[in-house]
Amino acid sequence: MPSRLTPLRVLLLDLDGVLVDTRPVMENAWQQVQKDHGLNVPFEMYERHLGRPFADIMEQLGLADAEAIHQTYSQASTAASHLARQFDGVAEVLHAFASAEWRLGIVTSKPLNRAAPLLAQLGVPFATVRTPNGVGRGKPAPDPILLALVDLGADPADALYIGDMAVDQEAARRAGVPYVHAAWGYGAPGRPTPVVAESPKDLLRLMDAGPLLEGSPV
Questions:
Q1: What is the mean predicted confidence (pLDDT) over 96-124?
Q2: pLDDT at residue 110 above 50?
Q3: DSSP letters spanning 118-182
Q4: Of the candidate ranges 54-58, 92-96, 204-208, the one whose mean pLDDT is the lowest
């Protein structure tokens, strides 16, 4: 079988904390969870585990009845969805990558029913969207990133993954995909220190960059 003449260029992105600022939505929903379920778990404790599937976060927090809590959280998130805002420059950056013939994909731990309206507002065609609604394990397992690459017929070397939590970095490492940390997001990067983008527009430098190695400057 002949090899591709033009290598694919794939940009995979997390959603919360990378494309859309949903912290006000999540904080509002978690307050409702605490009220309805009589919990005394500060939002900051929930927030430090962002990026994992909801059931995994509940396990990390030692909370039982995860399904009922998730139902409350999901309903409250939907009701507060109007509080979400795109990060400045995100839509322009995504359109620039699309115009440069990069294929765009989403790998998020947000359920599809809540992710889809946020993605629709960006007005950009995503070639794949991987959420917990599909098969495989959630982050930090490499499954959703690898499945996104399968969707696109791409190799790990063809892609970059943009995230904002250490769990995103671990998933990318385990998938063999170079990782870029979104400094405007919600978490600090893990080790080894990854490539860091200071703003969405800083990602534009990646369009002309050669192969990115862990720890190399953007």
A1: 94
A2: yes
A3: HHHHHT---SEEE-TTSSSPPTTSSHHHHHHHHHHT--GGGEEEEESSHHHHHHHHHHT--EEEE
A4: 204-208
Q: In the prediction, which pLDDT does 1 show?
A: 37
Containing 47, the helix (H) or strand (E) segment is helix 43-47
Indicate if the pLDDT at residue 38 is higher than 60.
Answer: yes
Amino acid at 17: G
Residue 50 β-bridge partners = 52
Q: How is residue 146 written in tokens?
A: 């690898």
In the structure encoding, which two tokens stand for residue 51, read together? 């990026």
DSSP conformation class of 50: B
Find out whether 195 and 217 touch, Cβ atoms under 8 Å: yes
Q: What is the number of residues in the chain?
A: 218
By the 10 Å C-beta count (0-12 exposed, 13-18 middle, 19+ buried), 66 is classed as: middle
Amino acid 39: pLDDT:
95
Residue (of 167, 157, 153) closest to 109 by Cα position: 167
Give 2: exposed, middle or buried? Use CB within 10 Å, 0-12, 13-18, 19+. Answer: exposed
